[in-house]
Specification:
Layout (H helix, E strand, L loop, with lengths): L5 H26 L29 E5 L9 E3 L2 E4 L6 E4 L2 E4 L5 E3 L4 E9 L4 E7 L5 E7 L1 E2 L6 E2 L4 E4 L10 E8 L2 E3 L8 E5 L10
Antiparallel strand pairs: 1-15, 2-5, 3-4, 5-13, 6-12, 7-8, 7-11, 8-9, 9-13, 10-12, 13-14
The chain binds zinc ion (ZN).
Zinc ion (ZN) binds next to loops.
């Protein structure tokens, strides 16, 4: 090869490299699995799928998350047994209280449908109850104003009313409940949790 003109040597060398690369590519294609085995680890280099993975049967899922109904204000009375000033003994507090000035915006904790609004002078005052795609309901109480109606479909983080002190309340705050299977659960344990929900039940997610 040393006697060949430089240009031809370069050409041969180049075509030799090309052939080698082509051979490697063919070899790689031959070695690649036609489809990834079902239990292949998607992060392992050997198991990188070379074809689109089939969409599994069943409902298309997406996620939803509950967010704070009055962002920027802390829970100042927690869920659970508590002693109320001026009352004997302790009572179960079935939600959380978030103290905020009257007129502060109250947001839906997540997308859903308004299933009930009302005025309960001895208790919740002006309140809103919503049902969410994860099957849970949320309740917002002591509102000074309600900006939604029963049947309304509400997007996540949409304004639904204003903080107030209506009903059984000693000062402006939002009393916020989350119910699962009709029973109140601790909202502090659910806020921020990610829920898998079926897409067909949540066309309302795009309502806003
Ligand atoms: Zn409360």
């Amino acid at each position: 090869m040393s006697r060949l003109p430089p240009a031809l040597r370069t050409l041969l060398l180049h075509s030799g490299q090309t052939s080698a690369l082509l051979a490697m590519a063919v070899l790689a294609m031959a070695m690649a699995p036609a489809s990834a085995p079902p239990d292949a680890d998607p992060v392992s280099p050997e198991g990188v799928p070379v074809m689109a993975v089939a969409v599994p049967a069943g409902p298309v899922m997406r996620t939803m998350t509950f967010g704070e109904p009055v962002p920027g204000f802390d829970i100042n009375s927690r869920f659970g047994m508590r002693r109320l000033g001026g009352e004997p003994g302790v009572r179960m507090h079935k939600g959380v209280d978030i103290a905020a000035p009257s007129g502060t915006t109250v947001f839906a904790a997540g997308e859903g449908e308004v299933i009930r609004i009302g005025h309960d002078p001895a208790g919740y005052g002006n309140f809103i109850e919503m049902r969410h795609p994860n099957g849970m309901t949320t309740l917002y109480a002591h509102l000074s104003r309600i900006d939604v109606a029963t049947g309304d479909r509400i997007g996540s983080r949409e304004r639904i009313g204003l903080v107030g002190s209506t009903g059984y309340s000693t000062g402006p705050h939002l009393h916020f409940e989350i119910r699962r299977d009709g029973a109140q659960i601790n909202p502090a344990r659910v806020l921020g949790e990610v829920f898998q929900v079926a897409v067909e039940d949540t066309a309302l997610a795009a309502a806003s």
